[in-house]
What does this fold into?
Amino acid sequence: MAPPGNPPPPATKYFWGDVPEPDEYYASQGIRHAESYFQSPHGRLFTHAFHPLSAAHDGDVKGAVFMTHGYGSDSSWLFQTVAIAYARWGYAVFCADLLGHGRSDGVRGYLGDMEAAAAASLAFFLSVRTGEPYARLPAFLFGESMGGAVTLLMYLRSPRRDAARWTGLILSAPLLVIPDDMYPSRVRLFLYGLLFGLADTWAVLPDKRMVGKAIRDPEKLRVIASNPRLYRGAPRVGTMRELARVTEALRGRFVEVEAPFLAVHGLDDGVTAPEGSRMLYERAPSEDKELILYDGMYHSLLQGEPDESRDRVLADMRRWIDERVRRHGPAAAANGGGGEEKPAA
It folds into this structure.
């Protein structure tokens, strides 16, 4: 979840500063970047694509990773540092701003129908995943915070023939259990509900001081807060109602998660409860699952932690995804699939 509330501090032109211009910056990172819009059945999405410069063509990559950001944020600004890291590891990465976020359609900060938001992003991801040159490559869904819940919705919404297309799921501090002190007031939601949907987009609920519970590094908080597309309003009634509904519903469907997955969570996360990741790990029947809990780390593991902590998380993610490509990628298929290996504990 992104920090709402106060006006942004003086902002640089880009998250990395005022210079260089984007193409030069991305080239300096060893990647190429493209932006476009995608018309989904539920609204138009703003999307990004990142490819390593080392790839001779789009299909000359280890696999494809499809990323979803958290509440109030977008796929640009600091979130793209995660996409850049994966692209530098040799993956093609695709991101989409959720409906109601960034440059996608919808009321800012409003997710009154998370099923529709998940369906919109899934439509874009599958349009890439099922076409050339990615149809035969390993493919992973990645979700951060609220994007973790949306990622699980996308996985569960995928038709069985398409669910098998997902080589694995990577979940960073997924919103699966809302901590008690962050949970929206049931009384407020009930009273607003008496207005028959008229209050759904009202930005009137307390923000529960998410900032200090999400980001540990003060300098990174400054950079995140300067995002010009960050939603800074109070939580909207329909969004919080939907988050409460969806997180409860998802917990009842953990038994349907059969894909390999990695879940990572900071034990000092005050925004999304680590217990949610524990429950997913314990209940999911997947034979290839891994849970890593980081002592002393906050909610935003990849954007808000000091560099040494962030690098530790990224190293764990790189180890996990590279191993799944080795097990399930084209080379493994040519050699019989590698199914004799034991799943990760």
